[in-house]
Amino acid sequence: MTPGLTALSKAVGQPLRLMLVTFIDALTPNAGPPLVIGSTGSTDTPKILDRINAEVLFDRQQPAEAAAGFVKQVGAAIQ
Fold this sequence. Notes:
Elements: H1 3-12, H2 14-27, H3 45-57, H4 63-78
């Protein structure tokens, strides 16, 4: 707890602790994993890679062609 919250907790006592626990328990089911805010384009890179990898795996693109496409698409995502 923060120093202010600690002081308040000592002043109010057990009821505040109970309220805090109740509040946190009520919010917990709605909380998801922390958001990752990456640099521009970094969050698109895995999606681009997965898509291009599938193109190569299913013989719709040659590896060299896919590599060039990857560099181009990631470059565009970063812009």
